[in-house]
Write a structure and sequence with these properties.
By secondary structure, the protein is mostly helical. Helix content is 79%, strand content 0%. It is built from 8 helices and no strands. Helix 2 packs parallel to helix 6 and helix 2 runs antiparallel to helix 7. It starts with 6 loop residues before the first helix and ends with a helix.
């Protein structure tokens, strides 16, 4: 279908990839908890934007560059680790009544979702190594094939993000009523982000 080796398997792979716990999911939950549905959807659009950047870089041949210049991958990995560690540390140390660690303006949530995705080695590996496996060289239709894949990823991410944001908003309303719970969740989110950062740096 449109030069995609197995479109059904491709859709399933994207859904599984989205559901795997990681910085992207945590960004959606944190943004929604801090700024509501609007902020959560802004973060979702940021994740979608990051996916598109990585996808089209893969199409442009960045995968070959990363294979021939492994130092470039290491640089991206360390940048992502530093970003997650810094953000996690700020969240962990946030106190009740403090200014939000994540700015309440939706465009800031968008940028955060974008940066977390683009600097996430899990996403980089997916688009540089796994994504090309679904391109059928025998019936490949050039840019049309990649455009269909890009639109599929964007649509699935939008639906997934909407579900996550709405569920998170439902529970966030109850959490806001208890400042102590809010502080504890900040510490949990901060710890998880720092954990993701350390994992990227050490492995």
């Amino acid at each position: 279908m449109f030069g995609i080796a197995d479109y059904g398997a491709f859709v399933v792979a994207i859904i599984v990839f989205l559901a795997i716990p990681g910085p992207g999911n945590l960004a959606l939950l944190t943004a929604t908890g801090k700024g509501g549905v609007r902020a959560g959807m802004a973060a979702t659009l940021g994740v979608m934007g990051g996916d598109q950047v990585l996808l089209w870089l893969a199409v442009a041949g960045l995968s070959a560059v990363l294979i021939n210049y492994p130092g470039l991958y290491s640089t991206v990995k360390w940048m992502g680790a530093a970003y997650l560690l810094g953000l996690g540390y700020s969240l962990f140390n946030a106190k009740s009544g403090d200014a939000p660690v994540l700015d309440m303006k939706p465009d800031h949530y968008f940028r955060q979702g974008l940066f977390i995705t683009v600097l996430n080695p899990k996403a980089i590996v997916f688009y540089m190594a796994f994504f090309p496996l679904f391109v059928d060289p025998k019936i490949h239709l050039g840019l049309l094939t990649f455009a269909v894949m890009a639109l599929t990823i964007a649509a699935l991410t939008l639906v997934y993000g909407l579900v996550v944001v709405l569920l998170a908003h439902h529970f966030a309303e109850r959490v806001r009523a208890n400042p102590l719970v809010s502080v504890m969740l900040n510490k949990v989110a901060g710890t998880l982000l720092m954990g993701f950062g350390l994992k990227l740096a050490l492995f």
